[in-house]
Protein 1
Amino acid sequence: FRRCSSDLLRRNGKLVGYSNNFIKRALHYNILTVSNDLFYVSPEVRGYNTLAGKMLMEHVKFEASRRDAKSITMGHKVAVGKHMKKLLTDSGFEPFEAHYAIWL
């Protein structure tokens, strides 16, 4: 893994969003892919009236492309991630694989 630089979103000098990603070679497809670890936008700037999430998402896509990545993987928490699911689909992402986890 190579760490991509964290993408930060500020409003009036205050940190209101960030995305932390890793770039790696996908084992099954032999391409560079960006794997998202964290994507956060503060609740006070979420929504379409501010476009904060969309701006941050576009920057992640720009950086991935600039680094010659061919895909980006992102996800969301099923129970509380409805806003993220909408942002992902509105940003052109499509469901591709389902990832499950067990907490021990």
Note: The two ends are 26 Å apart (CA to CA).
Protein 2
Amino acid sequence: QQTGKSYWKVYKEYSMNVEKCNIIKDEKELSLDYECVLEPGDLIYIPKSRFHLAQPLEKRLSLSFAISHDTKPINRKWYKFK
């Protein structure tokens, strides 16, 4: 979190382990693992494919990036920005 504050919830369920994850319509169907408020200088680690929710509490600037521990090559589409 660079600027501002944001509220985060991370759930115990993984999207790849829930059948038809697109039918989850209410977060009450999920089990909360942890929640926190990020302030400038804070960071959060969310395990791959975990359901999570982020809500800005004010204007914010943050940076997100994926960390992969897989040894298999990933076929990704790369786009060039002009």
Note: The mean pLDDT is 80.
Protein 3
Amino acid sequence: MIDSLLLGASQIFTFATLIFMLLGSIAGIVAAAIPGFTVTMAIILTLPLTFAMPPLQGIAVMLSVYVGGYTGGLISAALLGIPGTPSAVATTFDAFPMARTGQPGRALSIGVWASFFGTLISTVVLIAAAPPLAVLAVKLGPWEYFSLIVFALTIVASLVGSSLLRGLIAGAIGLAISTVGPDPMMGRPRFDFGIEMLAPGLPFLVVLIGIFAISQLVSEVEDARSVRAGTSLSSKDIDFQTWPVMREILRRPVNLLRSSIVGVLVGALPGAGGSIANLLAYDQAKRASKTPEKFGTGIPDGVVASESGNSATAGGGLIPMIALGIPGSAVDAILMASLMVHGISVGPRLIMDNADLVYGMFVAMVVASLMMLLVCVASMRLFLRVTEIPKWIIVPTVVVCCVIGSFALNNRVTDLYLLGYVGLAGYALRALDYPLSPLVLGVILGPIAETNLRRALMTDSDWSVFLTRPVSLLLLVAAVLSVAWVV
């Protein structure tokens, strides 16, 4: 083990590899900070550039983009109230209010440090527990996945804002939106009402950008006087203190560890991803807090939970890939493709046949997290200049980025019309005081829940199987207790 670790580290700590990793980290942060440009898109664009590199160097560069991307979504979430990536949705709940109350630097610093520690913790778990956790993840069937989604849907109770009824209605709207378009199992069209625009369905990213970004930007320009006066989106105080913030996070070890473990466990489940981990970690932090009513007003615990949770999925997603050759997410599938291009067989024997490569990946994860921290701290003051830009400049600029991101997703002009309609619907819901987070949660979890429910019933039509499989039963009981606790 030690020999493999040293051999892997010797390949990582070369001048060329470190430079390429630094560039990858910058690219990941910048790409994820733009609404609509996801971590997956950044990785896909990076893949062709790594073909001429040695295997470990290419993987290290993509891991840098991966780690940087999970943190980059924080920037627009904190400064604009718009999640740059789906995995930064919960970050907006407290980071943006904190920035609005004159602490944008503190909001960014807390998020960056939480992401750094979350990635480190997930890497430690990855090294220590990859084989057993991967075996457990693979043993889970569609029954357990459906029960997990039912448990995750109880998060709605924590996101409803001032009205439980409005929150439940918003969540139901999200679930309904997720059913529009081709059937996920058979591919048959449904609920498009003969409208060609709805035939492909409503892409999740288009809904996310429309609901959060467009509705937020429209609400920002309601007051024409503030726009003419050159008012910015948030406070112009760009002061920040890096080291005091680090100590502030380390004084919350329970929240940090709990959220990171949630991220690792969710990341280890194939198909779950950072968007679920982000919300689930935030939900658990709120439930465990002595002052849950302060969540959503701009408290550090909310930012720490959401950012450490989503960043920890980076290490968690590698667990099934390294141990069993099963990708935990779309990004992990791209990493697998990169290894296969170099003639490396990905499967249970990966760690035995290519130990130096696997341990080099572990080292690369740590180095990538350090580079992400270095880039973010060094460029923090530059990012915070966004708070000085007047609304009349920043709003149209962000709208253009949103439009480009939505179009780049599928190269469909109809997605731009959907973006406008969804944005106006989100603005109307915001004006009527409906929380938007449950709606987005429904859109995320709806297809996963439906697919696994149908797979379970196709395998065995007996509903009692959900209660006879121990893990499924445990998750369903947890869901019932979660709702009962809120009531």
Note: The CA atoms of residues 215 and 427 lie 4 Å apart.
